[in-house]
Specification:
The chain has 180 residues and is an all-alpha fold. The chain has 5 helices and no strands.
Length: 180
């Protein structure tokens, strides 16, 4: 003999589990689609500027947020719904719990990606500054070497006119150095 109440409970639990699994799949698809949109938007911002990128952006994209902020807002919407019920997670449906889990995993993943990107930008800026300083040091050394070479060619017994010629040549070097 079959207990209909237990059968209905089992059916209901299986249905909730299936819906939760579908929610996970749908959430992953939605998050991936938004990720692509946000990455494209960030690329546009770098290429064409913020204002032009806003005009090119998808209408469903909140251009005031980053992808990470979008994920956090989705998570917060579920958590705020939970708080409004005055619960600690027990009142969330299996679908909401599944969606929350996917969002938390995606946020953690995106935070790692964001930190790496920030570190890469810092390293690139540091390298550019270092390269610039090295170029300036090379130009200064080249200038100093040429000025010393010109002075040594002239020697101690130089006439006033030779000294003026040297100062003119150093002036040309100075102008060249400042233009670089």
């Amino acid at each position: 003999r079959v207990d209909v109440g237990k059968l209905n409970n089992a059916y209901s639990n299986d249905l909730d589990t299936l819906r939760a699994k579908q929610e996970v799949d749908n959430t992953k698809k939605e998050i991936e689609a938004k990720k692509v949109l946000y990455l494209d938007y960030e690329g546009y911002k770098l290429k064409v500027g913020s204002e032009n990128a806003k005009q090119l952006a998808d209408k469903n994209l909140d251009t005031e947020k980053t992808y990470l902020q979008y994920l956090e807002s989705q998570r917060d919407a579920i958590l705020n719904k939970q708080k409004s019920k005055g619960s600690e997670g027990d009142d969330l449906s299996k679908q909401e719990q599944a969606r929350l889990k996917v969002l938390r995993e995606s946020i953690a993943e995106q935070e790692v990606i964001q930190k790496k990107a920030d570190n890469d930008r810092y390293a690139a800026a540091f390298e550019a500054a270092l390269t610039h300083e090295q170029a300036v040091a090379r130009i200064n050394k080249d200038y100093t070497d040429k000025a010393i070479a010109l002075r040594s060619k002239l020697g101690k017994d130089a006439t006033t006119e030779q000294k003026k010629e040297l100062d003119a040549q150093i002036g040309v070097l100075n102008e060249k150095w400042q233009s670089e």
